[in-house]
Amino acid sequence: MTMENLERMLTEHPFFEGLNKRCLQMLVECASNVRFDAGEVIFREGEEAGLFYLIRHGRVSVETFAPNRGPVIIQTLGEGDLLGWSWLIEPYRWRFEARAVELTRAIALDGTCLRGKCAEDHELGYELMKRIAYVIENRLQATRLQLLNVYDGIRS
Amino acid sequence: MVADLSDPMVPSPFCLQKVRKETYDTFTLELEPANGADGFPFAAGQFNMLYAFGIGEAPLSISGDPAKPQTLVHTVRAVGAVTQAICRLKRGDVLGVRGPFGNHWPMEEAVGSDVVIVAGGIGLAPLRPALYYLLSNREKYGRIAVIYGARTLEDLLYKPELEQWRSQFDLDVDVTVDTAPASYRGNVGVVTTLIPRARFDPFHAVALVCGPEVMMRFTVRELESRGVDPENIFISLERNMRCGIGFCGHCQFGSAFICKDGPVFCYAEIQPFFAKREI
């Protein structure tokens, strides 16, 4: 996989839409192309969160384990989604488990490498923070709706 | 026989032919006129008042195929005294039907456009006739996307049909549930999370939305942020429908009566009232 190909993949991913070339080139240095087979565990709860993923194809389930219920899926992510932000927030440990539901292709970004670059280059850091905050906000809204049990209306 | 329009308050007797259990509290009933009438013509999106004799009436959307008016189909969730009584009926029992009432989904206006159907929970029932219509007239429409959310796998309606629709190449069906065991290979998350991924052209799409109001409110926001014009978003509302003809005023919604002017509304027209708590 050449740097040019990786840069193209990053540009095409919705998460980095509109990001300037200089920032993209800095990101490429921390990026790699990865794939996961159906059923493969991408990361486990409690492990060190060194990477995050931009899903290009496929689907990933985010899971946790509940006593008396076993493993429970909290959310399914798909093409165009970002997987994982624990690399950005101390203590840099995954809070949930992620598993490929089907063959999944993604771009992996090295969180330690990115944290270093963000500390050095605040424009990159701000861009990344804005985009991740947007993702977190959307996930928070979705979680609130799940808690509301929005389907429990009276219509029949 | 369909309720006589000159006296829409008089129910017609219908005989229960078939009952299918959809979920633990939801049943689909197939009814035929008990007086030998031909059938029950209706348009997708309309509703009836179903009368459980001696108990009362409840407004229920028609969930069958408008091209097959010989059988009247309703999907009923047992949540109150009337609907619980209706769900207890057995084959051969008779209930009263008044209707069909209200307007319908804008099937003609959507010709030539992509159509995105967003249903939450039992909101799929009033949308099923629209989907039947779209499939019967498939060549008239662009892409068709069905997005359906429910609390759990056990709460999904019409499971055999969902499987059939998902296998069709001319239809995109995405189903999501709020929680599922790890063995589930489908989608988990609230219904609005599927809208950004759905395959339709937001600038040439008509959206039909039905579900509890909170779900519709967030769905509309998501459709708008995707670029769908509020003029092209249609939602089906429910209030306390009683008479069905805009006479009693129980279902007043701003300046409209939902039973007569709705239940289907263009979002652009009701936008000022939609999020008002007092209405």
Could you describe the 3D structure shown?
- The complex is a heterodimer of chains A (156) and B (279).
- Chain A has 156 residues and is of the alpha+beta class.
- Chain A has helices at residues 3-12, 21-28, 111-120, 122-148, and strands spanning 31-36, 41-43, 51-57, 60-66, 70-77, 82-83, 97-100, 104-110.
- Chain A is 35% helix and 28% strand.
- In chain A, strand 4 and strand 5 (70-77) form a beta hairpin.
- In chain A, helix 1 (3-12) packs across helix 2 (21-28) and helix 3 (111-120) crosses helix 4 (122-148).
- By secondary structure, chain B is an alpha/beta fold.
- Chain B has two domains: 12-101, Elongation Factor Tu (Ef-tu), domain 3 (Beta Barrel); 114-236, 3-Layer(aba) Sandwich (Rossmann fold).
- Chain B contains six helices and 16 strands.
- Chain B has a seven-stranded mixed beta sheet with strand order 11-9-8-7-12-13-16, sandwiched between helices.
- The mean pLDDT of chain B is 91.
- Chain A binds chain B through residues 59, 61, 63, 69-76, 78-80, 99, 101-102, 138, 141-142, 145-146, 148-156, and chain B through 26, 58, 60-61, 75-77, 79, 83, 120-123, 125-126, 149-151, 155, 176, 178-182, 184-193, 196-197, 210-215, 218, 238.
State Rg of chain A.
Answer: 17 Å
CATH class of the largest domain in chain B: Alpha Beta
Which percent bin holds the helix content of chain A?
A: 25-40%
Assigned CATH architecture of chain A: Sandwich
Radius of gyration of chain B: 18 Å
Share in β-strands of chain B: 25-35%
The strand line-up of the biggest sheet of chain B is: 11-9-8-7-12-13-16
Short description:
The complex is a heterodimer of chains A (156) and B (279). Chain A has 156 residues and is an alpha+beta fold.
Task: Fill in the keyword field for this structure.
heterodimer; A: 156 residues; alpha+beta; Jelly Rolls; 4-stranded antiparallel β-sheet; 4 helices; globular; B: 279 residues; alpha/beta; Elongation Factor Tu (Ef-tu), domain 3; Rossmann fold; 2 domains; 7-stranded mixed β-sheet; 6-stranded antiparallel β-sheet
